[in-house]
User: Which sequence fits this backbone?
């Protein structure tokens, strides 16, 4: 793990300013966009520093790495988002220790998370990951399978279905990138379950592209590098 080298306070205020201007330019309320600080490879102390700047939501990709940090920060009242690939032998820890999961892409995993969510906790908030660029090696449900997956997950008693998430293919071409966000946003409307008032979240946009995800309707952006600086090779 590496230490946070530059001033996170300066980074966070710069990010907040960029969110506000991207939102205003798109005629959106900046308060409708939640910042998720992606803290993979960072220490609990790094996270505490960011949490002190009124950032309450953190995203982790690896269960084994996340659990000791969640324990160390149990007093801080943070909200934890699981944003990594889900292995079936990790669903119990995810269902028990996280409040949100962004990466549900198949029925079997959804069922396990619902079965394993403790009754002492609120239902687990869930996003379905969509493979918007049809990349064969990438996680995510295809757009064709999405409606079916939505219907299945909605019926699971211990999950609360909130919306969609994607990680588009990286592209230097802003138009290509923006088009991927637009496809996710239109899938979000197309599969919106009638009468499901919790269908309110579109998780898209990272350090390189959050300012183009915001005009396409992102309600959660997931930033790592912009907050903590560059990661060492993972
Ligand atoms: C690492 C990661 C991020 C953050 O990426 P940055 O480019 O550092 O902002 C966001 N989302 C997911 C799913 C990630 O794995």
Assistant:
């Amino acid at each position: 793990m590496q230490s946070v080298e530059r001033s996170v306070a300066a980074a966070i205020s710069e990010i907040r300013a960029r969110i506000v201007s991207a939102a205003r330019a798109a005629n959106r309320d900046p308060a409708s966009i939640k910042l998720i600080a992606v803290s993979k490879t960072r220490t609990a102390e790094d996270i505490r520093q960011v949490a002190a700047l009124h950032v309450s939501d953190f995203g982790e990709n690896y269960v084994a790495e996340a659990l000791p940090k969640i324990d160390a920060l149990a007093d801080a009242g943070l909200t934890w988002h699981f944003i990594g690939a889900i292995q079936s032998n990790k669903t119990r820890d995810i269902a028990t220790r996280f409040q949100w999961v962004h990466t549900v892409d198949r029925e079997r995993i959804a069922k396990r998370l619902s079965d394993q969510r403790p009754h002492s906790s609120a239902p687990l908030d869930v996003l379905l990951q969509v493979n918007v660029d049809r990349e064969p090696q990438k996680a995510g449900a295809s757009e064709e399978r999405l409606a079916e997956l939505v219907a299945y997950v909605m019926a699971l008693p211990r999950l609360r279905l909130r919306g969609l998430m994607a990680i588009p293919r990286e592209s230097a071409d802003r138009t290509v990138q923006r088009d991927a966000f637009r496809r996710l946003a239109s899938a979000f409307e197309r599969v919106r379950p009638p009468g499901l008032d919790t269908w309110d979240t579109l998780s898209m946009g990272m350090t390189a592209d959050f300012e183009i995800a915001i005009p396409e309707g992102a309600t959660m952006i997931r930033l790592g590098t912009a907050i903590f600086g560059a990661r060492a090779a993972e």
